[in-house]
Specification:
about 325 residues; alpha/beta; four-stranded parallel beta sheet; about 30% helix; binds threonylcarbamoyladenylate; binds magnesium ion
Length: about 325
């Protein structure tokens, strides 16, 4: 069910979650100051309670009640990338944020999304938490219709059209004085290095039962169709590939875009994975012969996660 901005605000103010567009993926929104509405988001998604949520702001000054101070490098990153697909994990002021948002951590995740509809709603009712608006474990939603597929046609959604990036925000955290990438996302590492004027690396979990980014514990981005990154010719029904390549004609073809255009591939990725399911495809080979640098690196990571067997605990994420 499509809502306008005023209707979405009324839903949120009376404690009903709504799905909102962002430039990355659609988010399932609840006001930060409504812990009960936030609990509804966990139930709707089937999301484990130990997976914290990102707080979405409409201006940098809105962050001040929740943190003791803003490190200079964080302010540099915020000024360079906000509004935009960057999430910063920062230490928080004790007691300033509901426990179910942080999953009890002493940090919280913040970003300012670059979408006029979401920004207008945050302006009106204050900070919102928004996980991606999909059933946990499934590919994220990049169109209003994806949200309706997961939560039903009556679920309230503000339709902002297809998300321009189509991949989630890049998540950064400062560890021992160095910013690390906790989740690859729509902003490639090279763009962040350019702003920080120093190399930035991916944080690899040393303690897999308690990773810094709890979401990395769970299966993600996976359609019901079984995905293979190496072809299994006798087993495959479909190929997910590129418009500039030739594939054997006996397979049903799903196109991600031109192999030399990672932005196009990113924006089509989740809707293509979702269309495998809407067309009842059971198994598909994903052509992953493409460079693995910059945005391709995030795309590759999502494909590996989407193709992987469920991790323990299963079905959630
Ligand atoms: O682009 C995005 O980031 C989208 C849109 C809607 O803004 N949101 C999104 O949210 O991807 P979600 O919930 O699907 O992923 C948030 C990730 C999870 O992996 C979670 O574990 C991590 O952020 N996270 C949140 N708070 C954290 C914290 N304090 N420390 C470490 N990781 C955190
Ligand atoms: Mg998600």
């Amino acid at each position: 069910m499509l809502l306008n901005i005023d209707e979405a605000c009324s839903y949120l103010l009376r404690g009903e979650p709504v799905a909102l567009p962002t430039e990355t993926v659609y988010g399932l929104a609840a006001p930060l100051n409504q812990p009960e509405t936030i609990d509804k988001i966990f139930s709707l998604k089937g999301r484990p309670k130990n997976n914290p949520l990102i707080i979405h702001l409409s201006s940098l000054s809105q962050i001040l009640p929740y943190i003791n101070f803003l490190p200079e490098s964080a302010s540099l990153l915020a000024n360079a990338f906000w509004p935009g697909p960057l999430t910063l994990i920062l230490p928080i002021k004790e007691g300033s944020i509901p426990q179910n948002v942080t999953a009890g951590l002493k940090t919280a995740a913040f970003r300012i999304p670059n979408n006029p509809l979401s920004l207008a709603i945050i302006e009106k009712i204050g900070p919102l938490v928004m996980p991606s608006a999909n059933i946990s474990g499934k590919p994220s939603a990049t169109q209003a219709s994806h949200v309706e597929n997961d939560f039903g046609a009556n679920f309230p959604v503000v339709d902002g059209g297809p998300c321009s990036h189509g991949l989630e925000s890049t998540i950064l955290m400062e560890i021992n004085g160095f910013w690390k990438i906790l989740r690859q996302g729509a902003i490639p590492a090279a763009n962040i290095e350019f702003v920080l004027e120093q190399p930035i690396s991916l944080h690899t979990n040393t303690n897999s039962s308690q990773p810094l980014c709890p979401g990395s514990l769970y299966r993600h981005y996976a359609p019901t169709a079984k995905l293979h990154l190496t072809p299994q010719p006798d087993n495959e029904e479909a190929i997910v590939g590129f418009s500039d390549r030739q594939y054997p004609p006996q397979y049903k073809l799903f196109l991600l875009g031109h192999s030399a255009n990672p932005e196009e591939i990113a924006s089509n990725l989740y809707s293509t994975l979702r269309s495998l399911d809407s067309q009842n495809i059971q198994t598909a080979w994903i052509d992953s012969h493409f460079p693995h640098h910059k945005l391709y690196s995030t795309i590759h990571e999502r494909l590996i996660r989407g193709a992987s067997a469920p991790l323990d605990p299963p079905k959630k994420g």
